[in-house]
Amino acid sequence: MDVAAAQSSTEAAVVLNGTDIPLADLLNPDLVARAASQREQFATAAPYPHIVLDDLFSPVFLDQTLPEFDALQDGGWMEFRNERETTRRSRPQAQFGPATQLYFDLVSSPRFIAFLSELTGITGLVADPLLRGGGMHESRPGGKFDVHLDFAKHPVTQLDNRLTLITYLNHGWQREWGGVLELWDADTGRCAADVVPVFGRTLLFAHTPRSLHGHPVGITPPDGRGRRSLTAYYYTNGRDDEAAAERFTTYFAPKPALTGRERAGEVARAVVPPVLYDAARGLVRRAGRGGN
């Protein structure tokens, strides 16, 4: 990756695989400028705060990341194959290609974090240079990732997880191929919104005890391609919204076959501190006995 001056002007450019991309074009300036005006849309979105931004990043830039998925050596991937997920993610501190590395440098930059803060109203955001849980994500044919809550705290820094940023890289992706990201309502245990993972689409959502999401249907693209994305997380040192939790691992949601009450109980078990959860169960049991 080289940064050079365009010969016809003083505008700086980055050169990726022989393609010149003006630095000013890496991010869509119109979307960045509208960050504050989109805060209400983010905050009031159902079933929890989120926003979908198409063409936030230059498509020419994102196109340069695609061959780097194939170029990443097998040792750079972590494979997950179990009942809940069939997918793979890049290892922490994997050696990315130049375009992919530039993407993560860009979304970790002070300018981009200021954009996120203006859009969401969350101050003190911190990017994760370790990319724990983030990085390059790919599901191959048949792949899925059941509905889940992400980890509430970073496993190393113990900072509070606040935001997830996902940029999709799938040209011409069709809904019927599966892989549609579902955003679930924690009260009903059902999908309330979804995001088709088409190329250039970026999803930003808040991490809360209610931010259930996943793509539980195995993908079936007719040409055998994978479902690809780039993911980054953002943290704060503490939180002021009473949504703090001590969970350092992913929690998978109960299956829809459970009753609404059972689903609510399972979600509560995942997000409420154990002492409070056990105390609440005790109160419910005593109240039930008192009525007999």
From TrEMBL:
Cofactors: L-ascorbate
Keyword Transport in annotation: no
GO molecular function: dioxygenase activity; iron ion binding; L-ascorbic acid binding; oxidoreductase activity, acting on paired donors, with incorporation or reduction of molecular oxygen
Domain Prolyl 4-hydroxylase alpha subunit: 48-235
Family matches, as InterPro entries: Pro_4_hyd_alph (IPR006620), Pro_4_hyd_alph_FE2OG_OXY (IPR044862)
Pfam families: 2OG-FeII_Oxy_3
Tagged with keyword Cell membrane: no
Protein name as annotated: 2-oxoglutarate-Fe(II)-dependent oxygenase superfamily protein
Organism whose genome encodes this protein: Motilibacter rhizosphaerae
